[in-house]
Amino acid sequence: CNTCGGGGTPRYQGDYNAIVSNPDVSQLTWGDFRWGSFASFTAYFPDFAMRLYPEDLQIAYRDTLWAVVPHVKLYDNAAIFSTELETPPSGTFTVSYPNGDTLTSFPDSIPIVITVDGVPTGSYSVTIKGEGPNGTPVHYREATIEVIPLPPPVADFMASDTSTCVGSSVDFTDLTQYNPTNWQWTFEGGDPSESTEQNPAGILYNTPGSYDVSLTVVNNTGSDDTTKIDYITVHVIPDPPEGDDRQACVNEEIPPLEATGDNIRWYSDPTMDTLVFEGDVFETGQTEPGVYPYYVTQNMGGCESPAKMITLTIFELPEVTLTPFDAVCLNTDPFELTNGQPEGGTYFGPGVEDGVFDASLAGEGTYTIGYVFTNGNSCSDTAFQDITVLPLPEVTLEPQGAGCVDSGPVDLTGGSPEGGEYWGDGITDNMFYPEEAGVGEHLINYTWADTNGCSNTASQPYTVYPLPAVNIGNDTSVCGDVSMTLNAGVPGAVSYLWTPGNYTTPTITVDTAGIGLGVQEHSVLVTDENGCSNSDTIAILFLDCTGIDEIDGLKQVTVFPNPSSGIFTLNIVSAKPLELNMKVFNVSGVMIYGEQQLSVDGSYSEKITLSNAGSGIYYILLENGKGKMFKKILIR
User: Quick one: average pLDDT of 134-151?
Assistant: First the structure.
């Protein structure tokens, strides 16, 4: 070393002895004169630095040395530590490594605990070695331990839990200093209530409250005790929280689950191994159909309650279908909709009221009909189908006019397009029968259907006029010397025709002039302003009435049936007893039947058979010498 001697005189410093290496570390060994005499030195690369703290340590019972690695020179392997203590004349030193004897990251430190047991007071050397896994690099550091007299113990302890729940157990740990050898524990409210173990475990507390814990300890030089007031607090296990199950349909907003209590916890399993949420309102995040049970507790004073199961149920939607609709015509009668399944749902859309579709309400066009069904879980779904309302064809009918009630059948025409059907009162096979329809105004309807099956109807009125009411009187009998006026006058009549005589006046006068006694028949044909004609006929029997009056006491004479087939019943009602003669004449005045001295006292009834009488008008004559009475009958 050119600068190491005094005044710059060179001085010999030393020589390198050896250089060796392995795959992890290189080692250099040399000797030099740095301290005024030769000494050997070793260096490593990579390497770690090492020191002890403290270098002088007083121990009465137990204390700690720290091996410290403050920095490294590219060293990235483990550092393993070991301890060598001077052997005492009596007693023992015990070494322990509470955190292990190895460091793997730097900078770091490792505690080395030395316990003294029966070692005489005095100073003792301790050597700490730190080395790599293969023995290099290796460093040694020394410290001095001074063993001092053991003081009396200082009692202290700790518990595994100072706030616990009814039915729970607590473990106690002795923290007394200076090597205690005897322990006396007292556990107020605990089971057991006492213990002589150093670290008693499993002390059970079954009653809520706050309890003291006491400890008395003894070592070779004295004793000590301590009591911790209300050290253990035992809480009542709370009841499960309050909460209700929730339900929702899959297409709805899924509601959160809610619980009422303190410090609510939600678990996904009944063993409460998996905590999924803490808080009163739990958004589960579930969206698929299913049943999701959760187990909910509350926590008071660190005590967790039994679990209450609260379930979220997400229901599937019902499967709703709506089969397609056939097209309908605008004038289709309203019809009940039945295409939706399952049954019991509700239909809606244009033209729909109370489950009935009214095409006329919707109008022409294509519309969407919906069917919504709600199941027992209050979940709903909807199906849709289109329905088409077809337009009606354009149908016309020409005016149909009018006719008399006795007119013949009318062939109906004038409907367009051709090929439709006429219908209405009095219409059969496209023919109108006025007599069947009756007097009055009737609608002639014409219906035609197109290729879609849609039909439309046009209507026109047809008036059926009544026949004029012609009445020239009932058949009668008069005396041969009397003339009789017949009146056929009808309001609105435009012509009259009498037979015989071809008279055209509303009235005529008839008598026996030029004809003589007997029956005369007169008929009249009346035509009104509508062109409708009707007629009436009267038969008049002219009699020789010399000295003849009506029959006194005769109240009523009836014939039933009338007209008849020639067999009829004659009924006579009188106000006093009568004897009558009966004769039947034809229109020529020839008697065809007769009976004498019919006794009538209040009422009389007789069945008469005119077996040889032909069809025509006949007259029944009742007489008693004081009067006569005629009754007209008709035989068919």
Answer: 92
Q: Are strands 194-195 and 182-187 parallel, antiparallel or unpaired?
A: antiparallel
Tokens for 491, please give them.
């309001």
- Residue 135 and residue 42: Cα distance in Å, rounded? 14
- The values of phi and psi at residue 434, to 5°, are -60, -40
Residue 343: burial class (beta carbons within 10 Å; 0-12, 13-18, 19+): exposed
Q: Which residues have C-beta within 8 Å of that of residue 598, sequence separation ≥ 6?
A: 572, 579, 580, 581, 582, 604, 606
* Six token digits for residue 63: 């204390």
Model confidence at 9, pLDDT cuts 50, 70, 90, reads low
Does 224 or 73 have the greater pLDDT score?
224
* Residue matched to tokens 């009542």: 236
Q: Tell me the one-letter amino acid at 46.
A: P
Report residue 200 as tokens. 């008693």
Mean pLDDT of 386-408: 95
How far is residue 381's CA from residue 316's CA, in Å, rounded to a whole number? 10
**Tell me: the pLDDT tens digits for 333-364?**
999 999 999 999 999 999 999 999 999 999 99
Domains, the chain: 6-43 (no CATH), 46-147 (2.60.40.10), 157-235 (2.60.40.10), 242-315 (2.60.40.10), 321-390 (2.60.40), 396-465 (2.60.40), 476-543 (2.60.40.10), 554-635 (2.60.40.1930)
* Region for residue 330 given its phi and psi (left: phi exceeds 0; alpha: psi -120 to 50; beta: otherwise): alpha
Return the bridge partners of 528, or none.
493
> Residue 180 CA to chain centroid, in angstroms?
77
- Chain mean pLDDT for the chain: 91
Whether 16 shows a pLDDT value over 70: the answer reads no
**Residue 138, strand partner residues:** 131
> Hey, which bits of 70-134 come out as E strands?
72-73, 79-85, 92-96, 102-103, 108-117, 122-131
**26, exposed or middle or buried, with CB in 10 Å at 0-12, 13-18, 19+?**
middle
Q: Report the alpha-carbon distance of residue 183 to residue 424 in Å, rounded.
A: 123
Sorted by sequence, the CB contacts under 8 Å of residue 398 that are 6+ apart come out as 413, 414, 415, 460
| DSSP string over 228-250 | EEEEEEEEPPPPPPEE--EEEET
**Secondary structure of residue 175 in the 3-state scheme:** coil
Number of neighbours of residue 195 by Cβ within 10 angstroms: 19
Predicted confidence band of residue 3 (pLDDT cuts 50, 70, 90): low
Phi-psi region of 221 (alpha: psi -120 to 50; beta: other; left: phi over 0): alpha
DSSP 435-495: HHH-SEEEEEEEEEE-TTS-EEEEEEEEEEEPPP-------EEEETT--EEEE---TTEEE
Residue 544's pLDDT is 66
CB burial of residue 155 (10 Å; 0-12, 13-18, 19+): buried
Per-residue pLDDT tens over the stretch 556-566 = 999 999 999 99
pTM: 0.50
Q: 3-class DSSP state for residue 264?
A: coil
Written as six digits, the tokens of 217 are 């300890």
- CB contact at 8 A, 315 and 249: yes
- The DSSP call for residue 177 is B
Dist CA 112 CA 99 (whole Å): 9
